[in-house]
Write a structure and sequence with these properties.
By secondary structure, the protein is an alpha+beta fold. 44% of the residues lie in helices and 16% in strands. It folds into two domains: 63 residues, 434 Repressor (Amino-terminal Domain); 172 residues, Endonuclease, Chain A. The protein is elongated, with a radius of gyration of 22 Å.
Amino acid sequence: MANERLRGAIVDLGLTLDEVAERLGVAPKTVERWINDPDRKPYRRFQYATASLLRCEVSYLWPDERTSAEVTASGNAELVRLYPHRSVVMQTLWTNLYSKATRQFDLLVYSGFWLTEDATFHRIVKEKAADGVPIRFMLGEPASQAVAVRGEDEGIGAAMAGKIRNALINYGPLFGLPGVEFRLHSTTLYNSIYRADDEMLANGHLYGVGAYMAPVLHLRRVPGGELFDAYAESVERVWESARPISSPADWEGTH
């Protein structure tokens, strides 16, 4: 059965399939499939974009989807605490977070240099590696355009690349530990993300200031929530595109 609600909402606004497709950035055939094939629902981001364009609830266009109020309520439940900036967060929050990891231990940053000097963090990494927990470090590619831009954004220029190199040197003793992997990425980061299992800290990036002055979201995955997973999926995308390295000196490899 065709999605007549979707078809009707498009008609009510006087739009054509071509116009809808153009505004959503998809092919007209894709919109046509959304209407004619109930099993071909759009990805969640396109559901929201379509609902916004047509001034409808997602749950009206696709009745088996939750309302925006339900999604919002779940998202609020995922937020453990909001810190106005990283500098007011107790250092032990990071180490306590990672000390509970049993399945996933991810760190996505440009340099995250402040954490490289924490002896407790180093000890936790070694203990978790010995326990068989997979540990993934993702740092910025020092010579990449993304790192150069972030250095300019923070007002420290080339010092950003230097911080990454120094961070890699500090992490030297962790290279080669079982289950510990390091990769360099050239991604434009909007958040530094620190994840342990179903809990994470997302440190936003703001133009003109260092990450230590940007907000931190403490998130915990809850059933039905989408906020945690949105950040977690971005970590996976960076990991897939990042370059593996086997020693601190590998940053001098292919850029």
